[in-house]
User: Fold this.
Amino acid sequence: MASNGNSDPVLVIVQLTGGLDFMNTLIPYTEGTYYDSRPHVGIPQDQVLPLSGESPLGFHPAASRLKELYDGGDLAIVQGIGYPNSSRSHFRGMDIWHTCEPDVISTEGWIAKLVRELDPRSENPLTAVSFGRGLPRACAAPGVTVTSVGDLDSYGLMTSIEQEQEREANLDLFRRMYTPAVGAGVVRDYLGQTGRDVLSGADVLAEVPGKYTSTVEWGTNPIASALRDAARVHTAGLGTRVFYTQHAGYDYHSHQPGNHDRLLGELSGALSDFLTDLRNHDAADNVSVLVFTEFGRRIRDNGSGTDHGSGGGAYILGERVQGGLYAEYPSVKPKDWLNGEDLKHTIDFRGIYGTMLEQWMGVEASPIVGGDFEQVQPFAPKPAA
Assistant:
């Protein structure tokens, strides 16, 4: 039983903004094609952290704490995730992941649809909480309240005037981000119906930091701060069922080696600390984390980085996760490259959302993701009470 007072499943989303390079995270280090294609950003074989057994794959050295999670059976890696005709536009690509609509522009995010199922009468403004500036499109739908807060510590110290200014800034950021995609009228209607409620739950959150203690030495980077905030709210027992966090900087067209190393180190450490912290608070049993990015990178490097591609990866983490590899690693043989330069996706991202929705959250997936898609089976059966 988790310390939030019930055993309802909780979903944590980690959005990696910019396009994480899957090939340099889980590396096909036995393939000569990998090294031929990436003379500038490829990871030398002797630095790769091989998976156990006869696997031809290994982790980037900066992801050592991810490998520890994997070796401990807590990390499932979904290989080759994507969708047909993958968009290379950051904005459109992320929009598709946020709404599950590759062919049309949608006004409802998949997390917002989930919140509507979990809290149809909008009785708890903290059913879903997003950390970071601006409300992600995934969390937005008319009539659905998702609380958004930039930073839990600073928010609690703000005056009411400063809090109002932050709310207005967040709503303005949402307005500027999404008006070009869905039109001013739709955005205006959304803000008119729900704008004042979107951040209302943040008032309750102001008291959370004072109730939290931890022995974990968290990092000071943005994703560590966001996941620490998620841990604090979860252990406060406020009934939150969905947390949304973001980690930016993965669009490395140049200077990839240093940036990728740093970001992977931050991400790995934050995920490991998050699970450790929840375990220390006896609050891990009902939490699962989904990590995603809008697309992968191209197979060939461009001299100092990699360009937008497809066929990326996703990661599922948690106490009840059965660690391992899921779906298929895309073929790196040149004859199999998509459009002569990309990894082909091997499983649709909507099936992975469906996995989390049905197998973890207990909610029917089809109305939320727009159809029935192949799922994976990453969860161990729940222990008998």
Summary: The chain has a mean pLDDT of 88. The chain has one domain: 10-369. The longest strand covers residues 10-17.
